[in-house]
Design a protein that fits this description.
3-stranded antiparallel beta sheet; binds adenosine-3'-5'-diphosphate
Length: 346
């Protein structure tokens, strides 16, 4: 058999093995999963291995990722919980990584937008009509590949978390009070017709109980935090608030971590500041590409691009949460983070 035929056979076998696993999940696992009221993409949110996933298609995507994702040492994976600034960091990482490839005047961020440039692993299976084509396209992307994921650390395939795999993660953490407010607005704007609107109070109860997309939020953060302490060269743990407060320092850290440190000449020429300007909330949110149309993640998940931009501020929770609500989230954070050495940004 030729090399090409072997490759095709291998991919067919992979697709069959995935199909079998997925059918087993649909048949044996999904009906047994705990359910709660859905936030936006369906009436129900499902608890799988301790975390809440918004749809069965995301579960399908996660299983696909666990089966088929073969990391390369050059891969950079942006790992986030929803609403921690994924869109912003996609832009920052892409612009930093590709700064010598593109002129500012014809930069792909201006024409394609952050999500189109940075594949989302959780729904990668839906990039093509057939699993097999998604497997092939995953393999054929040129290095260095940039991916994003919301998958909790404990659900990642061993192939990605093993120290020997070489791929690296950038994790973004944000204050849970801002996350909650951001998610509540996002869910109400993006919800499908079947999902009834959710009051702030109802959403708050769910969030505090950990029932939110990819939640419990605190467990998501702690998984990556602990892993980053064990493997600081593999996982760069950053805070949204730190990037807001001192973007120059943190874009430099990002550049070093992804193996593209700024040279002295680039520093002198203002390359860091240029990237910060290109990726700023003001710039990105005003681009036509980010204002119109929807981002399609799967056949059932399409989200208006403009919904990814709201205020982009630190501390907006003060405009929506009562003192009692704020105290309750702070108390949960104190309890959950106790002894971890982590403090949320303010
Ligand atoms: P707010 O709702 O608080 O404004 P994600 O991309 O993970 O879905 O996160 C969305 C949050 O990041 C929203 O927060 C959004 O406004 C904010 N955001 C988007 N682009 C940003 C940017 N360039 N700079 C800072 N924040 C940004």
């Amino acid at each position: 058999m030729s090399g090409q035929e072997n490759k095709i056979k291998e991919e067919e076998e992979e697709a069959i093995s995935f199909q079998k696993t997925y059918e087993k999940i649909m048949r044996d696992i999904i009906p047994t999963l705990p359910k709660e009221r859905g936030w936006m993409l369906g009436n129900h949110i499902l608890q799988y291995k301790g975390f809440w996933l918004s749809t069965t298609s995301i579960l399908e995507g996660v299983v696909f990722l666990q089966h088929h994702f073969k990391p390369r040492p050059t891969d950079i994976i942006l790992a986030t919980s929803p609403k921690t600034g994924t869109t912003w960091f996609k832009a920052l990482i892409f612009a930093t990584m590709k700064r010598t490839t593109f002129e500012l005047s014809s930069h792909p961020l201006l024409t394609t937008g952050p999500h189109g440039l940075f594949p989302f692993l959780d729904t990668y299976i839906f990039q093509n009509d057939h699993y097999q084509d998604s497997i092939s396209s995953l393999k054929s992307l040129p290095s260095p590949r940039l991916f994003s994921t919301h998958v909790p650390y404990s659900m990642l395939p061993d192939s990605a978390t093993d120290a020997s795999s070489g791929c690296r993660f950038v994790y973004i953490c944000r204050n849970p009070k801002d996350i909650f407010v951001s998610m509540w607005f996002f869910a109400n704007k993006s919800r499908t017709k079947e999902v009834s609107p959710m009051s702030l109070e109802e959403a708050f109860e769910l969030f505090c109980r950990g029932v939110s997309p990819y939640g419990p939020y605190w467990d998501h953060v702690l998984g990556y935090w602990k892993a980053s302490l064990e493997s600081p060269n593999k996982i760069l743990f950053l805070k949204y608030e730190d990037m807001k407060n001192d973007p120059v320092v943190h874009v430099r850290r990002l550049a070093e971590f992804i193996g593209k440190p700024f040279s002295a000449e680039e520093e002198r020429n203002g390359a860091v500041e240029e990237i910060i300007r290109l990726c700023s909330f003001e710039n990105l949110s005003n681009l036509e590409i980010n204002k119109n149309g929807a981002e399609r993640f799967s056949p059932e998940i399409a989200i208006d691009k403009s919904n990814f931009f709201r205020k982009g501020q630190v501390g907006d929770w003060k405009n929506y949460l009562t003192e009692e609500m704020a105290k309750r989230i702070d108390q949960i954070s104190d309890d959950k983070l106790y002894g971890s050495g982590l403090k949320f940004g303010t």
